[in-house]
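re: ur question from earlier - yeah i can do the single chain one, its not a big deal. heres the input i used so u can compare w yours
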Amino acid sequence: TQWKADHEALKSENEQLKTELASVSGSQNEKEAQIAQLRRELEEKDAEIEKIIAQVEALLS
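and the output i got, formated as tokens:
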């Protein structure tokens, strides 16, 4: 009887851990997507800066 109770407790704990893992995994995926978006935005800003620098250099020469 004790073995059965222990087994049920372990099954319940295992389900909780699976749920937590899925939640953490989803959160991590969201953060990775956000990082990718920010990198794209940074690349766009860098390109804009390079363009402005080229225009300034053209005006100064």
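The chain is about 95% helix and 0% strand. not sure if urs matches, ping me
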